């Protein structure tokens, strides 16, 4: 009997985003990018082309980002049932996305510095070789983008796979760099506007910085246990307190993974009921704006012995 009750009360703590298809596609993109990087670096050394070498080393940064993505996937999968994590390894993928977005920002900074140096000290551009490199790089980026596109969203929980989204951003950043380079190199070759090459590099750096900022803004709140939106907290409070004379004395909601929130509620009532009763009240809130939110609910119920409980402040820290 006790075993049946315990089994009924236990629930899943796995909030990791296991994106098998995304992991497989990332591995394919890594192989393509790594081979392209090797060819460009080898050709740059053989032909003495700085354009080939620069693009090869630039692609090396994206290889590193893909490896971070794959490591996060593998770590999350291996440690899915690891009890040393309070709420599973659900944030590892988000951490991978955060690390990759920081790397994306570093790429943008390198582009900005190199472009600034080229403005101050214009270099001789081998247009034919450079155009060939940019075209080849763009082709590889388009293939990788097609591999990763649309797979960075967990449709089951309406949550983004930030890990894969960061890898996808790296591919788009490289594609943008190639497109801007082709525009600058073509105008330089046919119209003599050589200065447009570093200018396009600066434009690309600012666009990539923007992407990096957006990814950091999406991932960092999960890593620091940001709470849910205020209107959502108010909706929970009102729903609980509109039932009988319940008053919430303490409410904590925080992110435990992409699209998953844990909630701890402490309430007082003259007519307290079992915690399961209040959990059932919150079932209607498991879907909010089309997103599964409350994945782990803990309720503490306290008996109120005097009339003052009816005036309990919902924002009070502690129970009455």
Q: Which terms would index this structure?
A:
320 residues, alpha+beta, Alpha-lytic protease prodomain-like, Alpha-Beta Plaits, 2 domains, three-stranded mixed sheet, two-stranded antiparallel ribbon, 9 helices, 60% helix, disordered N terminus
The number of distinct β-strands equals 8
* Basic shape: elongated
Uncertain spans: 1-10, 313-320
Q: Which structural class should the secondary elements be placed in? A: alpha+beta
> What's the number of helices?
9
Q: Residue-averaged pLDDT, rounded? A: 77
Q: Within the CATH hierarchy, at the fold level, what is the topology of the largest domain? A: Alpha-lytic protease prodomain-like
CATH superfamily of the largest domain: Cation efflux protein transmembrane domain
Helix content: 55-70%
Q: How do the helices and strands follow one another from N- to C-terminus?
A: HHHEHHEEHHHEEHEEE
Q: Which architecture of the largest domain would the CATH scheme give at its second level? A: Up-down Bundle
Structural domain count = 2
Largest sheet: 3 strands, mixed
**What value does the Rg take, in angstroms?**
26 Å
Distance between the termini: 33 Å
The level 1 CATH classification of the largest domain is Mainly Alpha
């Amino acid at each position: 009997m006790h075993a049946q009750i315990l089994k009924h009360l236990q629930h899943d703590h796995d909030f990791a985003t296991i994106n098998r298809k995304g992991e497989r596609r990332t591995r394919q993109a890594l192989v393509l990018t790594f081979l392209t990087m090797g060819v460009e670096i080898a050709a740059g050394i053989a032909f003495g082309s700085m354009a080939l070498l620069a693009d090869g080393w630039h692609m090396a940064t994206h290889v590193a980002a893909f490896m971070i993505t794959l490591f996060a996937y593998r770590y999350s999968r291996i440690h899915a049932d690891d009890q040393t994590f309070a709420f599973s390894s659900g944030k590892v993928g988000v951490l991978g996305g955060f690390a990759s977005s920081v790397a994306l920002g570093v790429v943008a900074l390198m582009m900005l510095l190199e472009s600034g140096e080229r403005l101050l000290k214009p270099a001789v551009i081998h247009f034919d070789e450079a155009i060939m490199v940019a075209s080849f790089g763009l082709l590889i980026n388009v293939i990788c983008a097609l591999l990763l596109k649309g797979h960075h969203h967990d449709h089951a929980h309406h949550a983004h796979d930030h890990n894969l989204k960061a890898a996808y951003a790296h591919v788009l950043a490289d594609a943008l760099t190639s497109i801007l380079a082709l525009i600058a190199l073509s105008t330089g070759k046919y119209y003599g506007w050589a200065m447009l090459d570093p200018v396009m590099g600066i434009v690309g750096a600012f666009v990539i910085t923007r992407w990096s900022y957006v990814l950091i803004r999406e991932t960092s709140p999960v890593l620091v246990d940001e709470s849910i939106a205020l209107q959502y907290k108010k909706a929970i409070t009102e729903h609980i307190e509109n039932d009988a004379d319940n008053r919430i004395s303490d409410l904590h909601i925080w992110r435990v993974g992409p699209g998953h929130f844990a909630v701890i509620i402490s309430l007082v009532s003259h007519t307290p009921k079992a915690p399961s009763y209040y959990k059932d009240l919150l079932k209607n809130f498991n879907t909010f704006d089309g997103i599964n939110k409350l994945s782990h609910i803990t309720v503490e119920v306290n008996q109120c012995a005097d009339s003052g409980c009816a005036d309990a402040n919902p924002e009070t820290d502690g129970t009455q």
